[in-house]
Write a structure and sequence with these properties.
With about 260 residues, the protein is mostly beta strands. The chain contains 1 helix and 15 strands, in the order E-E-E-E-E-E-E-E-E-E-E-E-E-E-H-E. It has one helix at about 220-230, and strands at about 35, 40-45, 50-55, 55-60, 70-80, 85-95, 100-110, 120-130, 135-145, 155-165, 180-185, 185-195, 200-205, 215, 235-260. Strand 3 (about 50-55) and strand 4 (about 55-60) form a beta hairpin. The longest helix is centred in the C-terminal third of the chain and has 11 residues, at about 220-230. It starts with about 35 loop residues before the first strand and ends with a strand.
Length: about 260
Amino acid sequence: MKFITVANAILAIAPSALANPVATPTTGTDVSPVSVTAETGTPLCSQYAYLSANGYDILNNLWGISTATSGSQCTYYNGASGSSVAFSSTWTWAGDANTVKSYIYAGRQFTRKKVSDIGSLPTTVSWTYDATNIRANVAYDIFTHPDANHVNYNGEYELMIWLGRYGDVWPITSTGSPIATVTLAGYSFNLYFGYNGAMKVYSFVATSPPISSFSADVKQFFNYLTNNYAFPASNQYLLIYQFGTEAFTGGPARFNVPSFRADVY
C-alpha cells in the first residue's frame, strides 16, 4: 500500500522545566500532493511536491510555510541503491521561531499489519546537516491505530526517534522531563511522553546527538513500550514509517541523506 497523504504537524508548547521547550509532533489534515516523475536529481520545490521511488514516498512537506516571514525549501531525490534511497533538502526559514515550517521525509511503502504481527522493522540511515545555526530536529516518525484503514496523517499512538536536535526544540512532554532513560539497539535515549490532542506520543530522544549513522530494529522500541508502558501492540496497525527533518528557522542549511532503508517484516 502506498502512503502519499501528507503528514502535517501541529506545534504545541509543552509545560517543561527545560528552557523554551518546543514540542514537534506530526499530525494534521489531508492534502493533495503534487506528483513528480522519479528521476535522480529531481527537485521537489512546491509545497507538497511528491514522488514515489524504489518503494518509498518522498515528500517536500512545507505544511507550516504560512507562519514564515521569508524562506523556501526544496527537496531532492538523489537515487536508489538496492533497497535504499538517497535524498536531500535545502532550506532557509525566518519568522515565528517556535513553529515548524516543514517536515520533509522519505517514508517506506508497505502493507499494513498489526504491530504484534510484525517480526522486525530493520532500518539503517546516514545523514548530515551542514549548518548548526538552525532550529530543527532529525527524526523517525511512526503512527499506529486500531483501524487498518485509518488515515495516515494521525494515529492513536505516535512513536518518534530523534537522532538530531538543533536549537532549543524538544519533543512533546506532559511532565517537563524524561519519563525514562533507556538503551535500545546500542544507543542511549531519553524517553518523553505527552499528548497531541488525543494522540499518545512517545519520543525517544538521543542523549548524545547527533547520531548521524544509525542502524536498529525499530520493533525493539515497540517491544519496550509494550513491556513497560502497556502499548497495545495486538490491536495497533502500523500506518506510517518515515524518516526526515522538521525545520523551524535558520539556514541556509542542507540536510543530506545519502542512504535510508527501512523494512517491514
